[in-house]
Every structure is written in structure tokens, then in C-alpha cells.
Write a structure and sequence with these properties.
heterotrimer, A alpha/beta (about 325), B mainly alpha (about 325), C mainly alpha (about 300), A: alpha/beta, Rossmann fold, 2 domains, 8-stranded mixed sheet, 4-stranded antiparallel sheet, 13 helices, 12 strands, B: about 325 residues, mainly alpha, MetI-like fold, two-stranded antiparallel ribbon, 2 strands, binds adenosine-5'-diphosphate, binds magnesium ion
Chain lengths: ~325, ~325, ~300
């Protein structure tokens, strides 16, 4: 798995804040991760944990004056995107890093035919004329297995089913053969059978094109079969990260255990299905110490005071942000 | 959560109509206007603060006008015709804004005019608002044929050239204070009906209304106790906007000679009076019109600010008659 | 689509008929037209004779029928003042009013959209705040006063433009600019909030994720989808401009139907008043119909259902 594949994206210590009435909302704090060629990285966490915001920062679409990236760097093939001139910055999107959104209906322009919207990738980045771009769009629609593509390219987004719309998004995203593909909850809005078709399509494309794939989800089950590595986020911070199999088999953070316990049909723990007690903290009032401590069954006094840092577990390539990671690990194993 | 974010940002940005959140969630909770919110917001927004101060002073002057005018607004003095601003009168008092063609003190006349213009704006809004909101509540609450009739009337009236109709009617029944209020109300009630109906229809489906119905509250009680309080903020914003509109309409009608009749005074009438002398006595038209403009601008600033505060999701697009039914989240026609 | 068009057209005819009814009944309240036409010292027989000739002795219902059938054929009777068919007079003046309205909208719509988009490019910036204050000022402008002030400055003091009248472009500038202030303000406001609304939607974020700059996303995608509220507001404003023209035409002595209406009212010329009001009503109704159709055209969801 690790035979020297090139690191494509490198996020270091990223923090994003929003200005709100109640004060500063820390959506993402000190986030770091990498994505390499041909690798699938899953970002997991309950809704509101800052997954989408971290991706918006990566795509450069956090808008001032409300939203602000307060620290960190985002490197693509070594170049820091945050210090790049905006005129060059947005050209990276689509060409090198492409993205798929959760709600495809909302993410497609309602008043343009889908063929035109897919073709826009070519007109925008390659200066190709509309008519020719439309032909490419049809080819792409065929590639993602949309039936009767030549005819359907003339239709508007609302005329497609949810699964077909997501395929259109995928066709758009892969149009220029990007190195990195980011999928923000690509299957959340779909029903189960369609979900697996879309996931299969994504993995197939990743393998075919050797892309780095970032898969965002709040559902551990969805990513279980496809991801190589996982990042578990809570209140804008990473709780635990590492190779998927190891994290799932022997979680080193109580939050991960909680998440795993709340998926049905999970064999990694013997206990019954039980959701995590309590609610995620309000992002404007993240508790001091470990953000998870109010809900944590294994919290000790230290957890109320001191924010644990994300530390490597010796002898592995995993890391955990829990004061009691070793005890947790021993219990799980 | 998001809702309050948007509201706060609008306070920060002063007169802006909304803020640039990258995501919109349609508000399901109701955001009311609390006094604390208003005061805090005002102190942070200088432009609106000035507008409010201006309006307060204006209202005070209008109420106290009979006692505080520096000169008798009706006092003619042919030796003092067309005196420019800051001319001293025989009595030793200064004509701060100059005098008009009959030698009357312009400032005093504008102070008396304030009484007329402001009260017509307020009364007109009161009449049209009461009428429109009542009809809108009935239409939205009972639906069915009564809704059809009321909304058909609204549609038809909105298709009218209102100023022309107002002119025509005033020409027939004659100008003057009462007629003016009634005609202005007649041409503007539809907008309240639209807003009230739209809000009522969405509120009707809310659990708390359902609940009240289940425990056997009367329609009257539901409407007055549960619906009306929720309508208050949008109607308040709308009413503020409408006061400005009516003051402008009143001044235009009076200017044309169909509104307030001399010897009463209103701002529009003062402009009309100064019009023939614009080259020799510029101050009459200039000051009389400026006060109308400043009043309308202050009201619009205030309304804009209230709107941002009370209605962060911008349901105010109702105010436009087409978009009213076509893009608002509570679809009306269809 | 056809059904939608038919329904809107049907509605328009309904409004037009309602206006006719209103014009007739309110008009009859002015007093006896025969008395209005004849000189003050006319004898009773003369009045009676004229009443007979004008059909004023028939029952109101018959009179109404005659009026409506006449009106539908474009016959509102002969102007008391000029002794020619009233509608003809109105139609003679119509082009100059349409010219004024067109010039006004040609100034205000593009400028307003530009201002709105400019504000959205940098929300919360000084440019944005200025656009807001400017548009609110536009909305608050007292048009007849602004007209007089501009005459004072540009015609009387500077002597650059004529004070009033009709003819070449010079005459058009001041009235059109004055009339444009309020639609400019209102459309800029709606444009700003409509584009801002669009900008917060997922498809704009998606467009930017495709590699588009914010500016380009505003102009390419946001603006087009914001056009529905903008166009509808522009339609509303066109009807207000037709209203406002009454005042502004008198200020600038612009020989359109607004000025004609005031003249007709001063002369108590009932047929002329009726045909003017009706003509403006028809213009307003046509504008509204046009807006409804534009709306359907711009919204694919209606177009195909
Ligand atoms: N534009 C914004 N303005 C203010 N708050 C925002 C904005 N976008 C996201 N947030 C807040 O940031 C937090 C993280 O959101 P998000 O990244 O969307 O969560 P998720 O993990 O479900 O994708 C949430 O509390 C959300 O309310
Ligand atoms: Mg998300």
C-alpha cells in the first residue's frame, strides 16, 4: 500500500472561523492530513463537525468577511494554495482538484442544461467552443453510465433522478482528469441501492485514473469498504486518524467507539446498538479541555482541563487525541 | 443558529439588507424584535441612528408645531415677500429658511406642514394596514372561496395604475385631508393583504396553531392570540416602508393640486407654491422638497434596518407584487 | 405553457374590464356631463337637448352597455375640449410617453443590475454599503422636486439643458434621469439581494469548485438565475414609471398622456379623462402580462410543464 506514492494534498494545522452573533464560531481547528495518489481518505464525523467547512477551505470558497482561515497551510504538490494569487488559485479547482456535493440538485444550476454544465469544464479551462464541449459532455455522461446520454444532455437538472444527478456531478468532476477528487457526502441524499452504485462508480474511477479520493461521510458503514485511511472529526478537530481497518478494529478514541457502536450490524464490538449520549457542543461554545469530555464515558478530571494533542500511537501510523488512548486501546483490543 | 448569524452580520454592516452567508437555511423558528436587540443594534449602526434621531425630532416638532413655530405660519406680510434665508423680520426674529411669495415664514410653514404630511402618512398606513391585514388574515386562515375573492381583488387592484386612479378619484370626490387618507389607503391595502395571507398560510400549519385548535380555541382567539403576534414584525417593517411611500404620494398629489388644499399647508403644496418662483426664490422649493426627501430616506433606512433584524431570511421579497407569489417560500398562487 | 399563457391573458382581460367599470361609474359621479360641456349661462332646454343627444336620459345600465361597447371598439366619445374623438388625442400623445418610459427603463435597469452585482462582489465592503444607501436614496427621491432642482441647476444656472419641452435628445435627458431614480433604487436593491441569495446556493459553490472565480460565478450563473425577481421588479417599476410620468410630464411640460390627463382634468373633459386612464391601465396590464410571460420563459420548470 505504501510504495512511495506521491503526496498530492497536504493540509497543515488548518483553522477556520466564522463571525456570528454569539461570537466566533470555530468550525475547524488545527486540522492536518495528507492525500496521496490512488488513495482513499475518509473524513468521518457527526453533522456539524466541520467536515464540509474544511473542504470549502481546501477549495478556496470560504468567503470573507464572515468566514476566515485563521491559520495553517494547504499544499497541493508542494505549493501553498492559501498564499497563491486568487487569479491562479481558482484555476486549480476543476483542473487538479475536483469536487462532488451532497445535494446534486442544489449543486446544479437549475436553468442550464446538464450537457452545458458538464461542458463548461472544457469551455472554462480549455477554451473549447460550446458545441464541441457539449460532445465531450455526452461522452462523459456515457462514461458514468447515464442511459441515452446524447438525448439526456439537453435536459435540465430537475428532470433527472437523484442517482442520475449525482452521476452528472461525477461526470463534471472527472471531466479534466483531476488528480484529487473530493466527494462531500455523495450518497447521503440517495436510497441504499443507488448509494452502492455510486460508491462503486467512484472507486472504479479512482482506480482507473489513480486519483486521490477524499470521501466525506457521517456514516461509517458507507466508507467501510472503500477507504484506506480515516480521519474522525469532532467539533472541528481530529479525534483519531489512521488506516481504516486498524481504526475500525481497535479504535483508540472513545468517540470512535461511540460512532462504531451506533452503526447497525457492526461486528467490531460486541455491545448492542447504542447512539452516543448527549449532543455535539455548540461550535460557538466548545468546552475547555477535550471537546468530547461532556459525552465521554471514560473522561477523567484531566480531560476537563487539558486539550489532548493528536499524538502518534507508537509502532503504528495511527494517531489519537485522547488522554487515555492507551487504556482505550487496551480495552478495545 | 444560522438565522441569528445572519441577523448579527446585518447589524455590523449597517444598512445592508442581508449578509453573505455561504449557505441558507430557511428559517423555521420565528425571530422577533426584542427591545434590547433594537437598542443594541441601533447604537452600532450610526446611519440608522441618525435616521431615527431625525424622525424623532421631526415627530416632536410636528406634534408641538402650533406652539413652537417661530412665526405665525399664516401671517402674510407683503413687504417681506421672497426674503432669502436668515433675513431678520421687523419683530427682530430671523426667518431662518426665508419667506414665501406672501411673506410667510417658510420654516413655520414647513413645521405646520410636517403635521399634515406625517399624519397623512401614518393614518393612511393605519387604515390601509388594518384593512389589508384583516383581509389577508381571513383569506389565509379560512382559504376556500373567500380567499379566492379577496386574492382576486388584490390581483386586479395591483394591475391598476394606482396614482392615476387616485388622481381620478380625488378629482371626482375632491381633495382634502380625509379624502386623501382614504384614497391613499385604497391604493395600498393590497400589499398588506399579500403579506398577511402568506404568513398566515404558513403559520396555520405550525404545531402551535394546530395545538390551539385541538384544545378548542375559537378562530377569533387563534387569530388574535397566535397569528397576529407572529405577523407583527413583518407588518411593522412593511408599515414603515409604506409611511415613506404615502408621504411621497401625498406630496405628489398635493403638488399636482389634487391633495391638500390651500390655505392648509403640506410639504408637497409648499413645493408647488414655490415652483413659479424657482429662479428668484430658490429656497422655497429646495427646502420644502429636501425635507420630504430626508423624511422618506430616514424611514426607508429604518425599515431596511428593521427588516434585516426581524427578517433575516429576506421574506421581504413579498413586497414586490410578482415575486410575491412566484418566488416566496410560501407559494401563493399556483 | 399554453395554459399558463392563456390564464394570464384571461386575467389581464379581467383587469381591463374592471378598470372600465370603475372608470364609468366614478366618472358618472362628477356631475352632469351636459352641464359640464355647455357654457354656464346655457338654458335648461339646451341642457335637456344635449342630455338626449348624449344618451344621458337612458337608464344607467343602457348607458353602461353603450359605454362598454364603445370602449371596446376604442370609442370613448368626443373630447369636450377639442371636439375630436378622445382616444385619438390620447394615441397621438402616447409615443412621447412611451419614449420617456423606455428611456427611463433603459437607464435604470442595466445600471441597477450593475450596481447590485457590484455590491455582491464584495459583500459588506464600502462599495456594498454605498450601493445600499444610494438605492435607498433613489427610492426616497421626491421626483417632482428632483426635477425642479435639476432644472434649477442644469438649465437655469448652467444653461446646459433646456428647461422643458419636447424634441431632441436634450429634452429627454432631465425627465428620464429624474424618473429613473426610483426604479434604479428599487431594482438595485432587488438585484443585490437576489444575486446574494443565488450566491449562497450550492450550485454557485459548485461552480466555484469547478474553477470559476467568484466574479465569474456572479455574472455567469448567479445573475441569470437572479433575473426572475429582477425582471418582475423591473416590470413593477415600469408601471410605476407610467404613473410617475403624470407628475414629471407636468414638471417638464413633456407632451405625453400624463400631461394630457392633467389638462383634461382641468377642463373637466370626461371622455378624454376616461380614455387616458383606460389607455394607461391597458399599458400597465400589458406590462404585467409581459412580465408574467418573461417569468415563464426564464424558468424552465414552468416552460416545460
Ligand atoms: N457560512 C457559514 N457561516 C456560519 N457558520 C457556518 C458556515 N458554514 C458552516 N458553518 C458552521 O460551521 C460548522 C461546521 O459545519 P459543516 O462543516 O457544514 O459541518 P459538516 O461536518 O456537517 O459538514 C457548523 O456549526 C456550521 O453551522
Ligand atoms: Mg456537510
Amino acid at each position: 500500500m505504501t510504495h512511495g506514492r506521491e503526496v498530492l494534498v497536504e493540509v497543515n494545522n488548518l483553522s477556520v472561523e466564522f463571525q456570528t452573533t454569539e461570537g466566533v464560531l470555530r468550525a475547524v481547528t488545527g486540522l492536518s492530513y495528507t492525500v496521496s495518489q490512488g488513495e482513499t481518505v475518509a473524513i468521518l464525523g457527526e453533522s456539524g463537525s466541520g467536515k464540509s467547512v474544511s473542504i470549502e477551505a481546501l477549495m478556496g470558497i470560504i468567503d470573507p468577511p464572515n468566514g476566515r482561515i485563521t491559520s495553517g497551510e494547504i499544499r497541493f504538490r508542494g505549493t501553498n494554495l492559501l498564499t497563491m494569487p486568487t487569479t491562479l488559485r481558482h484555476r486549480i479547482n476543476g483542473e487538479h482538484i475536483a469536487m462532488i456535493f451532497q445535494d446534486a440538485l442544489a449543486a446544479l444550476n437549475p436553468s442550464q442544461t446538464v450537457g452545458k454544465q458538464i461542458g463548461e469544464m472544457f469551455t472554462l479551462h480549455r477554451g473549447i467552443r460550446h458545441r464541441e464541449a457539449f460532445q465531450y459532455a455526452i461522452e462523459l455522461m456515457n462514461r458514468v453510465r447515464i442511459p441515452a446520454a446524447a438525448k439526456r444532455a439537453h435536459c435540465y437538472p430537475h428532470e433527472f433522478s437523484g442517482g442520475m444527478r449525482q452521476r452528472i456531478m461525477i461526470a463534471t468532476a472527472i471531466a479534466l482528469e483531476p488528480e484529487v477528487l473530493i466527494a462531500d457526502e455523495p450518497t447521503t441524499a440517495l436510497d441504499v441501492t443507488v448509494q452502492s452504485q455510486i460508491m462503486d462508480l467512484l472507486t472504479e474511477l479512482r482506480t482507473e485514473r489513480n486519483m486521490g479520493l477524499v470521501l466525506i461521510s457521517h456514516d461509517l458503514g458507507v466508507v467501510a469498504d472503500v477507504a484506506d485511511r480515516v480521519l474522525v472529526m469532532y467539533a472541528g478537530q481530529i479525534m483519531e486518524c489512521g488506516p481504516l481497518r486498524e481504526v475500525y478494529r481497535t479504535p483508540s478514541h472513545p468517540y470512535t467507539i461511540g460512532l462504531l457502536n451506533s452503526i447497525p450490524n457492526n461486528q467490531s464490538t460486541q455491545e448492542r446498538l447504542q447512539p452516543i449520549k448527549g449532543l455535539p457542543p455548540s461550535p460557538v461554545a466548545i468546552p475547555p479541555g477535550c471537546p468530547f469530555h461532556p459525552r465521554c464515558p471514560s473522561a477523567i478530571e484531566l480531560c476537563h482541563r487539558v486539550l489532548p494533542s493528536l499524538e502518534k500511537l507508537p509502532g503504528t501510523n495511527r494517531a489519537s487525541a485522547c488522554h487515555r488512548k492507551h487504556e482505550v486501546l487496551d480495552n478495545a483490543g | 443558529m444560522r438565522i441569528s448569524i445572519r441577523a448579527s452580520a446585518t447589524i455590523d454592516m449597517g444598512t445592508n439588507m442581508s449578509e453573505p452567508a455561504t449557505k441558507v437555511t430557511i428559517a423555521t423558528g420565528k425571530v422577533g424584535l426584542s427591545p434590547g436587540m433594537l437598542v443594541r443594534g441601533l447604537l452600532r449602526d450610526k446611519v440608522t441612528l441618525f435616521a431615527c434621531l431625525f424622525l424623532t425630532i421631526l415627530a416632536t416638532v410636528a406634534v408641538c408645531a402650533p406652539w413652537i413655530t417661530p412665526h405665525d405660519p399664516m401671517d402674510q406680510n407683503l413687504f417681506m415677500r421672497h426674503k432669502p434665508p436668515m433675513t431678520s423680520a421687523d419683530s427682530g426674529l430671523v426667518h431662518i429658511l426665508g419667506t414665501d411669495a406672501l411673506g410667510r415664514d417658510l420654516l413655520s410653514r414647513l413645521m405646520m406642514g410636517a403635521q399634515v404630511s406625517l399624519s397623512i402618512g401614518l393614518l393612511g398606513v393605519l387604515v390601509s394596514g388594518t384593512f389589508g391585514v384583516t383581509l389577508g388574515l381571513i383569506a389565509g386562515y379560512y382559504r376556500g372561496w373567500i380567499d379566492d375573492i379577496i386574492m382576486r381583488a388584490v390581483d386586479v387592484m395591483l394591475g391598476f395604475p394606482t396614482l392615476l386612479v387616485a388622481l381620478f378619484v380625488l378629482f371626482v370626490i375632491g381633495g382634502g385631508y380625509v379624502n386623501l387618507v382614504l384614497v391613499l389607503a385604497l391604493t395600498r391595502w393590497m400589499i398588506y393583504a399579500r403579506v398577511a395571507r402568506g404568513m398566515t398560510m404558513s403559520l396555520r400549519e405550525e404545531p402551535f396553531i394546530e395545538g390551539a385548535r385541538v384544545i378548542g380555541a375559537s378562530d377569533f382567539r387563534i387569530i388574535t392570540r397566535h397569528l397576529w403576534p407572529n405577523l407583527l414584525s413583518p407588518v411593522l417593517v412593511l408599515a414603515t416602508l409604506e409611511v415613506a411611500r404615502l408621504i411621497l404620494a401625498e406630496s405628489a398629489l398635493s403638488f399636482l393640486g389634487f391633495g391638500i388644499q390651500p390655505p392648509s399647508s403640506s410639504w408637497g403644496l409648499e413645493v408647488a407654491g414655490g415652483r413659479s418662483y424657482i429662479t428668484t426664490a430658490w429656497w422655497i422649493v429646495t427646502f420644502s422638497g429636501a425635507i420630504i426627501f430626508l423624511t422618506a430616506l430616514s424611514l426607508n433606512l429604518l425599515a431596511n434596518w428593521l427588516r434585516a433584524l426581524a427578517d433575516p431570511v429576506q421574506r421581504w421579497r413579498w413586497l414586490s407584487k410578482h415575486t410575491a407569489s412566484q418566488t416566496n417560500p410560501l407559494k401563493e398562487r399556483q | 405553457m399554453t395554459r399558463y399563457v392563456l390564464r394570464r391573458a384571461f386575467h389581464s382581460v379581467g383587469v381591463a374590464l374592471t378598470v372600465l367599470v370603475l372608470v364609468f361609474f366614478v366618472g358618472r359621479m362628477i356631475g352632469d356631463p351636459a352641464v359640464l360641456i355647455l357654457p354656464v349661462d346655457a338654458r335648461a332646454e339646451q341642457v335637456e337637448e344635449l342630455r338626449e343627444r348624449l344618451g344621458l336620459n337612458a337608464p344607467l345600465s343602457t348607458q353602461f352597455l353603450t359605454f362598454v361597447t364603445g370602449a371596446v371598439r376604442g370609442d370613448f366619445g368626443v373630447s369636450f375640449w377639442q371636439q375630436v374623438p378622445a382616444l385619438g388625442l390620447v394615441l397621438e400623445r402616447l409615443p412621447s410617453t412611451l419614449l420617456l418610459a423606455a428611456a427611463t427603463m433603459a437607464i435604470s435597469i442595466p445600471l441597477a443590475i450593475l450596481l447590485g452585482a457590484l455590491a455582491v462582489l464584495n459583500p459588506g465592503s464600502w462599495a456594498d454599503k454605498s450601493v445600499t444607501v444610494a438605492s435607498l436614496s433613489g427610492v426616497s427621491v421626491v421626483d417632482f422636486w428632483l426635477g425642479l432642482m435639476l432644472i434649477l441647476i442644469f438649465s437655469v444656472q448652467l444653461g446646459w439643458l433646456p428647461t422643458s419641452g419636447y424634441g431632441d435628445l436634450e429634452h429627454l435627458i432631465l425627465p428620464a434621469v429624474v424618473l429613473a431614480a426610483s426604479p434604479l433604487g428599487r431594482i438595485a436593491q432587488i438585484a443585490r439581494s437576489a444575486v446574494l441569495d443565488e450566491m449562497s446556493k450550492a450550485y454557485i459553490r459548485a461552480a466555484r469548485a469547478k474553477g470559476m472565480s467568484r466574479r465569474r460565478a456572479v455574472f455567469r450563473h448567479g445573475l441569470k438565475n437572479a433575473f426572475v425577481p429582477i425582471i418582475t421588479m423591473a416590470g413593477d417599476e415600469t408601471t410605476s414609471v407610467l404613473n410617475g410620468a403624470v407628475v414629471i410630464e407636468t414638471v417638464f411640460a413633456w407632451p405625453g398622456i400624463g400631461l394630457l390627463l392633467i389638462q383634461a382634468i382641468q377642463r373637466r373633459d370626461l371622455p378624454l379623462i376616461e380614455s387616458t386612464v383606460f389607455t394607461v391601465a391597458v399599458l400597465v396590464i400589458l406590462t404585467n402580462l409581459f412580465v408574467d410571460l418573461a417569468y415563464a420563459y426564464l424558468n424552465p420548470r414552468i416552460r416545460y410543464n
